[in-house]
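Please go through the protein record below and see whether the fold suits the sequence. Record follows.
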Amino acid sequence: TDWIKEVMLSKTAMFGGFFYNPKFNHINVQSFVPLINATGKVVAVVVIVIDPYRSFFPLIKSWPIPNTSAETLIVRKKDDQFLVLNELRHRSDTAMKLTLPIKELIRSSAQTVQDNRGFFEGIDYRGVNVLAQIQPIGRSNWFMVTKVNTQEFLSQVHYLSLEIIILVSLALLITGLVTCLLYYFRQNNISKNLYL
């Protein structure tokens, strides 16, 4: 009801965020949209309820490249802990149920309390070394933590660097062969001209 009053006063749509419905044991996302008549008066507020299990949670679990350890967490500071808002990749049934002490979630996430953001290296809630990026989400008290195991990331870097070395070596070899062939044909033409 507070959201509806605020939307009616501001006459703008608002995102209500995640809420846990204990009756259905389910998490939903609410948005509030005012319906304004021709005179500019708000006559009603439409409450849009979205199921994050159908769209949002699968979206943040997907990755643009094949990856076994990467994970995105949406967290909200709650007292001296972080409340995890989404389903985790390496644990099940965690959305809005799992709270972790700031020190246990990930060292770099703990720094978001001091409003730090950017790239960090640390240890996550599983005790694994990770590379993470921390970003605040809009004008909310939420943070997005995107992380990948350091070992997996470095193995991909080594693989890509090996590919680059092979491609550069092939390019140099082909350039050398083309140069040798051009030199041979040039020398052959010079020899023929001299013979004639």
